[in-house]
Design brief:
Serine Threonine Protein Phosphatase 5, Tetratricopeptide repeat; 15 helices; elongated; 0% strand; 299 residues; mainly alpha; 72% helix
């Protein structure tokens, strides 16, 4: 009796757990072939199989094949989290940082609490900043807007193996309350960070802001953490946080000013002046900005 697609998938998961990525991929391929005739009716299961095979490709370093499988999985089930994260990792390995950034950012819209997505965004921001300068955002492909249905559809397992992948199910009741709780917790962490700044404990404040940002990406948490980085002379990190803040609010005066300060310390005077000039278009009489512009013109 021929094995069913679900049996092949389970066998593939077992091979994956044993580190046998080639045999696992072959089993997923056999399952996909059996489901080919089912068409749209089997779309969720086919998406999972493609995502599982993509995990094998990624483990084997076949990043282009991983991208192809993830793209196929996402065509069947848009905004599925695991294919987004795996494709982002593959793009990152291929040094296609813009595309990796877009996928990590999209994944955060699906679930803002995923550490791998936050870490990926931070790495890609740093890489793109070094590659394209402070205006790197202008070169990005568009980041898709994830519909609310996709944000609440997935119940995210913590297991890393493809065996944890299951077809999408309805979101459990209470998911919006969990989101609200996460936002409240993020606010509390940010306020704890603010108190630590007042006490001069900038290192611990950074930890609080980082925890807050994992739960809720808020402009103030980025600019507050940037201030801590400035104080600790971690200027590249300050630039990165201000850039993230400006992505959320392009006219944020604190982000423009603090990025200009950090860029000045990094001796990127041209970019620093550009930020101050942008700030002065918003607040022409900002005395701190006018003073910094004078310093920059003398540099």
């Amino acid at each position: 009796m021929a094995a069913s697609p679900s049996a092949l998938r389970r066998a593939g998961n077992e091979e994956f757990r044993r580190g046998q990525y080639g045999p696992a991929a072959a089993l997923y391929t056999r399952a996909l072939a059996l489901l080919e005739a089912a068409g749209d009716a089997a779309a969720p299961e086919r998406s999972v199989l493609l995502a599982n095979r993509a995990a094998c490709r990624l483990k084997e370093g076949a990043c282009s094949l991983c991208v192809a499988d993830c793209t196929g999985a996402l065509a069947l089930v848009p905004f599925a989290l695991k294919p987004l994260l795996r494709r982002a990792a593959a793009y990152e390995a291929l040094e296609r940082y813009q595309l990796a950034y877009v996928d990590y950012k999209t994944a955060l819209q699906v679930d803002c609490s995923v550490p791998a997505a936050h870490d990926g965004v931070n790495r890609m921001t740093k890489a793109l900043l070094e590659q394209d300068g402070v205006n790197w955002r202008q070169k990005l492909p568009p980041i898709p807007t994830v519909p609310i249905s996709a944000q609440t559809r997935w119940s995210i397992p913590s297991a890393a193996s493809p065996g944890a992948d299951t077809p999408p199910a309805a979101a459990p009741r209470g998911a919006p309350d969990q989101t609200a709780a996460g936002t409240d917790r993020a606010r509390t962490l940010k306020e704890e960070g603010n108190e630590l700044v007042k006490k001069g404990n900038h290192k611990k404040a950074i930890q609080k802001y980082t925890e807050s940002l994992k739960l809720n990406q808020e402009c103030a948490a980025y600019t507050n953490r940037a201030l801590c980085y400035l104080t600790l002379k971690q200027y590249r990190e300050a630039v990165q946080d201000c850039t993230e803040a400006l992505g959320l609010d392009p006219k944020n005066v604190k982000a423009l000013y603090r990025r200009a300060q950090a860029l000045k310390e990094l001796k990127d005077y041209k970019s620093s002046i550009a930020d101050i000039e942008s700030l002065l278009k918003i607040e022409p009489k900002n005395t701190a900005a006018l003073r910094l512009l004078q310093e920059l013109n003398r540099a």
